[in-house]
């Protein structure tokens, strides 16, 4: 018998039978057993056939055929294990079981062979040394330990020396600091003594001045008050205007007198009198008005005279005011009458800018003052240039050349005329000849370009700010008109829109008041709303007895709307969602077929539509019961129901009051149908229910008398209804008698 050897390689996926290699496309552990069974089966078949030639029908060939069939038809994958709990839990449990089985196999191996290695890493084994080697190792360790000890002692010693050194340095530095502090303390004490002396002298000086000026200050208390509010007190602004006149006198005439020959024996007394008057105004401003100015400290307005006076004396402005009042004019006696000694008076120019700010804050049209101020700047620049031109002409020689001042006519007017033509670059001037003249004229041209461009830009800003509102109105109106034209809006509607824009702007100076009020803080908006509308709100019957703060909150929710003549504010049957307060103009309650009947005219301060705010839509109470249209231009305040309900959430007591009053007002001002129904019920209650028709009469009359009975019903109701409504029992009794008498005739 020929033996067959079957080998299977799982990794290479091949089977070897008697050194004959068969390559498969499958790899299965059970395949080897199957192949052996197939081979034995084929061998048995061969023996049954009694075939002696083993090479003619080699079982290997048949087995290869079977293997080929298996290779062409791969085995189906094993079915997935059933899910017991869920897929994830089953996988975790199977993994745990697998690890437990692996651990069980390991323990079994341990039981069989107790020296079997474990999966853990074994600790390192200490090497075994010979006695000599061990002695050397011990000696080496001792030597290393001794070296480490010596190094540590040296390091400790070095560290100790460094600490001692630092300690000595710290002590020396401490001594130096103490000496330095002592020196500073001595110097500070000396300075304090000097400062105390200076402070005492200063306090003594001001105490003396206060004692001297106290009678004057007490007399002025009745005129200007103990203290002055610099922002709202009109008296202070009026005084600043006087100081501004004195400042302008010094600014304009000091420079003119310095450059032009206006000092002579006849004019000097006049100049001296004017100077003394200006100095007196400066002096009064310094001792009377400026020390009374209130100021803010830590958010508090300080109104105490002593504190306001001390605050002024500690400020830089007081220093500048003192310098302005220094009497350099006394040098006239030594050097002659020259206005240069009054140059320190120009340092009070800050008061002019303060006056400008205060005036703008109180003026309704502040741009007028801005334009005047800008023109003043322009004139002053021309004045300075005229002064320089006269000085240059005097330097070159009056009348020496055609370019300089000729010396004829008024020197100031001629030089000012030249300055105007030079700075504005008008032209037509005499040509300069010398280097000085050319340089001066070029400087004039460059200065004129710079100054006038700045002034023109400033003037443009002033005018633009003054007409910003008008520009916004015109742009809004033009945009609206363009939109209507593009969408082919009828001409009548366009005219009404233009009328609304024009009237709204003329009436209130803006299209939407909320744009201005939204920029203000809540306190300011509340104050404005209370001043305008609180009195009107308190007169409304619906809101009487409500919380005052609730009324204030309602005022902040009001919206202003302007209606044109003939515009319907509300129409009968509309859903009422707002109430209206007439701010200006009038409205009419109209009715009739074409709304030509005027029932009542409501004017400024009246209210309508308040009932609809509190009525719900269940019973139709929020429906408008009349037509209201504008009689002329009407400016109305509108309060929406949503805003009212948002406010009432925070005021439950007021909500109960409004609900109770709303029911009362609804009964008092309800529709006419409700009154008719109520009167009809009263009449039925007075006479009781109508008795039914007797059966005998119905049986006797049948269908013949049914028309008569119906006619009786109609006649009775027609005659009795007015009497019941008007509550006239005598007339009712007469009608009943008449009816009874005429009943047989009607029956006939």
Automatic annotation (TrEMBL):
Q: Where are the transmembrane segments?
A: 236-258, 270-289, 371-392
Q: Which organism is it from?
A: Sparus aurata (Gilthead sea bream)
Task: Provide the protein's localization.
Answer: Membrane
Q: Which UniProt keywords apply?
A: cGMP, cGMP-binding, Ion channel, Ion transport, Ligand-gated ion channel, Membrane, Nucleotide-binding, Sensory transduction, Transmembrane, Transmembrane helix, Transport, Vision
Lineage summary: Eukaryota, Metazoa, Chordata, Craniata, Vertebrata
Q: How does it sit in the membrane?
A: Multi-pass membrane protein
According to the record, the residues making up region (Disordered) are: 143-195
Which intervals hold domain Cyclic nucleotide-binding? Answer: 542-648
Keyword Ion transport attributed: yes
The gene that this protein is the product of is: LOC115569634
What catalytic activity does the UniProt entry give for this protein? Na(+)(in) = Na(+)(out); K(+)(in) = K(+)(out)
Question: This chain belongs to which protein, by name?
Answer: Cyclic nucleotide gated channel subunit beta 3, tandem duplicate 2
Q: Does the keyword Transmembrane apply?
A: yes
| Matching InterPro entries | CNG_cation_channel, cNMP-bd_CS, cNMP-bd_dom, cNMP-bd_dom_sf, Ion_trans_dom, RmlC-like_jellyroll
The terms describing its cellular component in GO are: intracellular cyclic nucleotide activated cation channel complex; photoreceptor outer segment; plasma membrane
Gene Ontology molecular functions: cGMP binding; intracellularly cAMP-activated cation channel activity; intracellularly cGMP-activated cation channel activity; protein-containing complex binding
């Amino acid at each position: 018998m020929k033996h067959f050897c079957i080998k299977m390689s799982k990794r290479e996926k091949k089977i070897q039978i008697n050194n004959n290699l068969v390559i498969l496309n499958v790899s299965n552990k059970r395949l080897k057993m199957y192949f052996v069974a197939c081979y034995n089966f084929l061998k048995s078949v061969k023996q049954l056939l009694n075939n002696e030639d083993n090479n003619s029908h080699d079982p290997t060939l048949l087995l290869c055929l079977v293997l080929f069939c298996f290779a062409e038809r791969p085995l189906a994958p094993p079915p997935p294990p059933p899910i017991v709990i869920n897929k994830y839990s089953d996988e975790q449990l199977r993994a745990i079981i697998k690890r437990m089985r692996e651990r069980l196999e390991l323990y079994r191996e341990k039981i069989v062979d107790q020296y079997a290695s474990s999966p853990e890493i074994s600790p390192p084994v200490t090497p075994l040394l010979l006695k000599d080697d061990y002695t050397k190792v011990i000696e080496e360790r001792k030597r290393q330990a001794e070296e480490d000890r010596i190094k540590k002692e040296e390091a400790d010693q070095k560290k100790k020396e460094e600490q001692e050194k630092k300690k000595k340095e710290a002590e020396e530095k401490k001594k130096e600091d103490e000496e330095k502090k002592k020196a500073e303390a001595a110097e500070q004490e000396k300075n304090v003594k000097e400062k105390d002396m200076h402070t005492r002298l200063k306090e003594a000086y001001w105490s003396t001045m206060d004692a001297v000026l106290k009678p004057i200050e007490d007399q002025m208390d009745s005129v200007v008050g103990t203290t002055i509010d610099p922002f709202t007190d009109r008296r202070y602004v009026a005084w600043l205007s006087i100081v501004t006149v004195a400042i302008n006198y010094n600014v304009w005439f000091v420079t003119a007198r310095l450059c032009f020959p206006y000092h002579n024996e006849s004019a000097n007394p006049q100049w001296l009198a004017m100077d003394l008057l200006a100095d007196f105004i400066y002096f009064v401003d310094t001792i009377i008005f400026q020390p009374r100015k209130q100021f803010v400290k830590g958010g508090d307005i300080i109104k105490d005279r002593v504190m306001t006076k001390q605050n002024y004396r500690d400020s830089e402005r007081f220093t500048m005011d003192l310098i302005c009042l220094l009497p350099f004019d006394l040098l006239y006696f030594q050097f002659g009458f020259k206005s240069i000694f009054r140059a320190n008076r120009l340092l009070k120019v800050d008061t002019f800018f303060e006056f400008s700010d205060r005036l703008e804050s109180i003026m309704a049209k502040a741009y007028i003052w801005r334009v005047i101020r800008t023109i003043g700047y322009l004139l002053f620049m021309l004045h300075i240039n005229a002064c320089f031109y006269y000085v240059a002409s005097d330097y070159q020689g009056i009348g020496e050349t055609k370019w300089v001042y000729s010396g004829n006519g008024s020197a100031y007017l001629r030089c000012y005329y030249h300055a105007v033509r030079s700075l504005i670059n008008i032209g037509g001037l005499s040509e300069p000849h010398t280097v000085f003249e050319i340089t001066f004229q070029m400087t004039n041209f460059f200065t004129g370009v710079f100054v006038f461009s700045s002034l023109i830009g400033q003037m443009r800003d002033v005018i633009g700010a003054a007409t910003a509102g008008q520009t916004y109105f015109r742009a809004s109106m033009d945009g609206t008109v363009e939109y209507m034209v593009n969408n082919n809006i009828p001409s009548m509607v366009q005219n009404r829109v233009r009328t609304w824009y024009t009237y709204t702007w003329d009436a209130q100076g803006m299209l939407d008041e909320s744009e201005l009020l939204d920029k203000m803080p809540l306190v300011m908006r509340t104050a404005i709303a209370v001043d305008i509308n609180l009195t009107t709100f308190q007169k409304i019957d619906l809101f009487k007895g409500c919380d005052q703060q609730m009324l204030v909150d309602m005022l902040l929710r009001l919206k202003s709307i302007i209606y044109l003549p003939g515009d319907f504010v509300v129409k009968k049957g509309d859903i009422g969602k707002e109430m209206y307060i007439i701010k200006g103009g009038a409205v009419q309650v109209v009715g009739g077929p074409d709304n030509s009947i005027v029932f009542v005219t409501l004017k400024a301060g009246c209210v309508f539509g308040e009932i609809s705010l509190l009525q719900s839509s269940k019973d139709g109470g929020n429906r408008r019961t009349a037509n209201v249209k504008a009689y002329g231009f009407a400016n109305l305040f509108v309060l929406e129901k949503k805003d009212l309900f948002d406010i009432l959430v925070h005021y439950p007591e007021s909500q109960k009051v409004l609900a109770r009053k709303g029911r009362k007002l609804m009964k008092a001002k309800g529709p006419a149908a409700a009154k008719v129904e109520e009167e009809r019920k009263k009449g039925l209650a007075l006479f009781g229910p109508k008795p039914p028709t007797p059966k005998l009469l119905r049986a006797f009359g049948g269908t013949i008398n049914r028309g008569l009975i119906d006619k009786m019903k109609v006649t009775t109701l027609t005659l009795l209804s007015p009497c019941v409504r008007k509550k006239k029992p005598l007339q009712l009794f007469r009608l009943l008698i008449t009816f009874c008498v005429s009943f047989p005739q009607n029956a006939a």
